[in-house]
From TrEMBL:
The keyword Oxidoreductase applies. InterPro entries: Cys_rich_dom, HdrB/HdrD_reductase. It comes from Svornostia abyssi. This is CoB--CoM heterodisulfide reductase iron-sulfur subunit B family protein. Residues 3-84, 152-240 form the Cysteine-rich domain.
């Protein structure tokens, strides 16, 4: 499967282990990544607050670049915040030919034009809807036996449900649980799995942001999770990078590893922790990589390491 690949800003800046692990995992899933290197930031909803036309022009430009990738089956991102921001823009662009034509005037100097209807999917959706869970299961070389994983969706990939296409046919708000189970892991239920991580308010009210993150981490810890997994690098930043600061805010000692989705998939497909960049995390995922504790089953000698 060939995809026009939009890694986003954060995965190549603050969380390079996300972009790196996706590049390692893609060939194992028979995904050919064609990076959209000329694409720019989605705006993450912030630019739209100041100029909707600018935000829509930026995203229409990315869609137009994706449509130029010959033979691509769809456009894929690895950031659920990007998914949300792009989905909102695409909804407006596709709803009005007149507005779309106006936005395309802004793209014309680059010789670009967005045609309505491109399929844009987060990696999580690609796993379930394009690769398929049965196919994914057949690729597993190292089942995540007894690994207790808490899903953390964040905001932008679970609401609004209509825009995100969440329905009985596509229960996308359960896909993380389905993937965890397919990889051989155990899903841990806890209160904050579909709540905001707190990142959007961190520059305005850091205390509130840290309290949100700390509460979710503590809830997962109380549920005996070995780690969390998220499809959003911004959530990862608040839950991992800010975790040492969040603990004191909620009055707890927190030590909860937070994995990017491609990292969890990569572990099950046989890649080593070092290949997946697990050594880059602020909170070291000891529970995941300490093979001597048998948290992750069926690991061959020498497969671990940082």
């Amino acid at each position: 499967m060939k995809v026009a690949y939009w890694p986003g800003c954060v995965s190549r800046g603050f969380t390079p282990e996300l972009h790196g692990s996706m590049e390692k995992v893609a060939p194992l899933l028979d995904i050919e990544l064609v990076p959209l290197d000329r694409a720019c930031c989605t705006g993450a909803g912030v630019i739209a607050e100041h100029s909707q036309e600018l935000a829509d022009s930026l995203n229409a430009r990315t869609f137009a670049l994706a449509q130029q990738v010959a033979g691509a089956d769809l456009m894929m991102n690895i950031c659920s915040t990007c998914q949300g921001a792009q989905g909102e823009c695409q909804e407006r662009l596709d709803a009005s030919a007149e507005y779309r034509a106006h936005i395309n005037e802004n793209l014309a100097p680059e010789g670009l034009e967005y045609q309505a209807g491109i399929a844009n999917k987060n990696f999580l959706w690609v796993l379930v809807e394009e690769i398929g869970l049965d196919n994914l299961k057949s690729m597993v070389k190292r089942p995540l036996t007894d690994l207790r994983v808490g899903p953390f969706y964040g905001c932008y990939i679970v609401r609004p449900t209509d825009r995100l296409g969440i329905n009985a046919e596509n229960p996308r708000d359960t896909y993380l649980e389905q993937v965890i189970e397919t990889l051989g892991g155990t899903t841990v239920e806890y209160a904050g799995s579909q709540k905001c991580c707190g990142f959007p308010v961190i520059t305005m009210n850091k205390q509130a942001s840290l309290k949100q993150a700390g509460t979710h981490l503590a809830d997962a810890q109380d549920a005996d999770a070995d780690c969390l997994v998220t499809p959003c690098p911004l959530c990862h930043l608040n839950l991992d990078l800010q975790q040492p600061l969040a603990g004191p805010v909620v009055g707890r000692s927190l030590q909860m590893p937070v994995l990017h989705l491609p990292q969890l998939v990569g572990l099950a497909l046989g890649l080593s922790p070092k290949e997946l960049g697990l050594n880059k995390h602020v909170v070291k995922p000891t529970a995941v990589v300490d093979w001597s504790t048998s948290v992750v089953g069926a690991v061959g000698a020498g497969a671990g390491g940082w």
